[in-house]
Structure formats: C-alpha cells, structure tokens
DNA sequence: CGGAATCCTAACCGATACTG
DNA sequence: CAGTATCGGTTAGGATTCCG
C-alpha cells in the first residue's frame, strides 16, 4: 500500500493545475487535446480503427493517413509531431528503402486513449439522438 | 430484461456510424465536441467548477462566464446555442427584471460530461509528465 | 515512403457597439 | 443581465511543389 492514495495525489494536482483558469498550463494542454485529429489519431493507434481487432498496435504513416479519412498530410504530420513532443506517441524510423516510419502509443498516450475512445464512441452512439434534437430545434415548430 | 442488450445496440450503431469516415455525421459531431469551450462548459455545468462541490447544477450565463476564464461572450453564447441545439443542455428563461437565464445539463449532456470530465482531469493530472517530455524534446540533447 | 516548405484563403474568434 | 450584430485581424489548414 502506498503512502499516498490516488485520491490524495489527485487532490494535490487539483490545487496545482486548474483548466478553468486561462493562464494555467493545463488549459493550454486541454486546448491541444480538444482536437479532432488528436482524438482520431489516438483512436487509430489504440486499435479503434475501421477494421481493426481492437488491440493497440503501431501504424505506419500511410496507414494512419488511410484510416483517418479527410486528414491532410500537413495536419497529420503536424499533429503527430505535437503528440510525439508531448510524450503520447513514439516515432520509430526503420532505414529501409524507401524509409518506414511507424507510430505507437506510449503508456501516457494509452491512458489518454482510454478517454478519447469514449469520446468517439459517444459521438457514434448518440448521433441519432443528437440529430433528432437538431431537427426539433430547427423546425419552427407547428 | 430488454430484447436487445446494450452491447447489441452498440454493435448496430457501430455499423451505422463511423467517425473515421470524413462524410459520416458522427465525424462532424466529433468535430464539434472536440472543442475546448464545449469541454469546459460541460465540466462547469457538471459541477467540476473551481469551488464547486461536484454536483451537477444549473448555472446562469454570468456564472458560466466567470468560471470559464478567458471565454469571450461571443464564443460562450455561440457554444451554448449549439449545445442546446444538440440537446445537451437546456436554456431556461425566468422573466425577472433584468431577465435571468440558466443553463443545465440534460441527460444526454450528463452522459457526455462523464467523458469530458475525464479529459479535463487527464490534462490536469498529467500536465507535469507532458511538460517533462516537452523539455526533453526541445533540448538539443547533450 | 514520409515528409518539409511555401503560398494562400476561408474560418474562427476577439473587440466593440448596440438592444430588450 | 443576457444577449445580438458587425467588423477586422489572426490563424488554422488545404493545395501544391520539392526532397532524402
């Protein structure tokens, strides 16, 4: 048994960082994480991909590009870099010809994936309900 | 007992919507949800506010504006409208003088809050780890 | 294959002013 | 108090081109 519980540590961090404050570093971090490409990339690497089995697995740049439909090469590279910088993913270069680059979740990234997967799942599971609310909101009502 | 289990229904929705597809409605929904103001507003209404007890409670416009530091009134109003349209929050007008407007989570909004609260908590809890990775990434390394 | 660099426009968003 | 409306700057981000 640890001398500090998870609840105690969370309490300490709660005092240290507060995302509600504009100047707090965690606010900037939340801004970065609140990005569709971040969510989709983490989901893809976590194994949530279209035909994937559900196991977290490394993916090549081209595989990510294919799975995440609509992402431009610029945004994909840019987002991957920031995720690597933040320690959420690793970038591994294999000097084949042509070169092979694979991305994989770190433990830190895996822990965040546990949340982003829920976000994506929520969007898919509740799409119908949201659409119904929109229709009712948009019709002038009889 | 229902004739369809939660797992079965989720499986059906999984086939219906896929956020990895650019044209899928759930992709657009995910784009909207992947927004810092959406996350912070849901967190505030869910009771995650600065000095809040942790209970979901309705908040007035001015209270939201105060809790979510740095949000412009334009973005606050705009985001609140879209959340109302999507059925995630309710907007209640009390005809006092001056008028009183309160916002509260719906059941749908409450279910999404369960995820956004984790996102905010993750940002705060792992800020130190991320910062450390950034420092190591940014230093040319000796 | 997996990028980097450049250009350029569409949108986001903040600031300001006005209203019921 | 709780907005709406308008304007204008910033920037996100797409398209294109080139490189190791």
Name the helicity range of chain A: 55-70%
Main sheet record of chain A: 3 strands, antiparallel
Distance between the termini of chain A: 63 Å
Given the helix and strand composition of chain A, which structural class is it? mainly alpha
Instruction: Provide the gyration radius of chain A in Å.
Output: 19 Å
- Residue share in β-strands of chain A: 5-15%
- Enter the CATH topology name of chain A: Arc Repressor Mutant, subunit A
Average pLDDT rating of chain A: 90
CATH superfamily of chain A: Winged helix-like DNA-binding domain superfamily/Winged helix DNA-binding domain
Order of helix and strand elements from N to C terminus of chain A:
HHHEHHEEHH
What is the count of DSSP helices of chain A, taking H or I runs of 4+ residues?
7
What can you see in these coordinates?
The structure is a homodimer of 142-residue chains. The first copy, chain A, has 142 residues and is mainly α. Chain A has one domain (24-124): Arc Repressor Mutant, subunit A (Orthogonal Bundle). Helix content of chain A is 59%, strand content 10%. Chain A contains seven helices and three strands. Chain A has a three-stranded antiparallel β-sheet. In chain A, helix 3 (36-48) packs across helix 6 (107-125). The radius of gyration of chain A is 19 Å and the shape is globular. The first copy, chain A, starts with 5 loop residues before the first helix and ends with a helix. Chains A and B meet through helix 1, helix 2, helix 3, helix 6 and helix 7 of A and helix 1, helix 2, helix 3, helix 6 and helix 7 of B. The structure holds a DNA duplex (20 and 20 nucleotides).
């Amino acid at each position: 048994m640890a001398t500090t519980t998870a609840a105690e540590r969370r309490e300490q961090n709660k005092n240290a960082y507060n995302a509600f404050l504009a100047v707090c570093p965690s606010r900037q971090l939340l801004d970065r994480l609140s990005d569709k490409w971040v969510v989709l990339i983490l989901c893809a690497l976590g194994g949530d991909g279209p035909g994937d089995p559900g196991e977290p697995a490394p993916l090549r740049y081209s595989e990510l590009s294919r799975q995440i439909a609509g992402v431009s090469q610029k945004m994909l590279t840019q987002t991957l870099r920031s995720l690597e910088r933040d320690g959420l993913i690793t970038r591994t270069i294999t000097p084949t010809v042509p070169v092979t680059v694979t991305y994989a979740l770190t433990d830190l990234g895996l822990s965040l994936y546990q949340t982003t997967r829920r976000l994506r799942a929520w969007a898919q599971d509740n799409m119908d309900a949201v659409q119904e609310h929109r229709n009712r909101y948009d019709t002038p009502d009889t």
